[in-house]
Amino acid sequence: GWGIPVGMTAIWAASVASKMKSKCWWGYNLTTYFWILEGPRMAVIMLNFLFLLNIIRVLIVKLRQSHTSEVEKARKAVRAALVLLPLLGITNIVNMMEAPLDRQVWEFALWSYSTHFLTSFQGLFVAVL
């Protein structure tokens, strides 16, 4: 399970080390080499999002066969989706958005706080659910 991430990180570190002129790697995420790490991560998150959509589709089909009200069916589908969001890492989609550095201060604050909150408490969400 750890071989592929370690390999990608080693390739990224070697690439950055060979191209960065200083010992400080500040701004590494602004280089094209960052996509060695970010590309596969985005692909996995998008694949998980497709799994989530398929699970919701199957759940809705199954709920339509039961004899409960439409509101209760929708409530169950939404509850299932909310449970699966942190499990599949969908909360990391906020991390993939570019930081709104050229926008209003409140927009950057909203992005920053939501990113840090979702990332920090993802384990808690999984444990509670």
TrEMBL record:
Using the record's annotation, list all stretches that form the G-protein coupled receptors family 2 profile domain.
1-129
Q: Which UniProt keywords apply?
A: Membrane, Receptor, Transmembrane, Transmembrane helix
**Domain of life from the UniProt record:** Eukaryota
Where located? Membrane
The answer to keyword Transmembrane applying to this record is yes
- Extract the GO molecular function terms from the UniProt entry: G protein-coupled peptide receptor activity
Membrane-topology descriptor: Multi-pass membrane protein
Main location as per UniProt: membrane
Q: What is the native source organism of this protein? A: Riptortus pedestris (Bean bug)
Gene Ontology, cellular component aspect: plasma membrane
Gene Ontology terms describing biological process: adenylate cyclase-modulating G protein-coupled receptor signaling pathway; cell surface receptor signaling pathway
Membrane-spanning ranges: 42-60, 80-97, 109-128
The protein depicted here goes by the name: Pigment-dispersing factor receptor
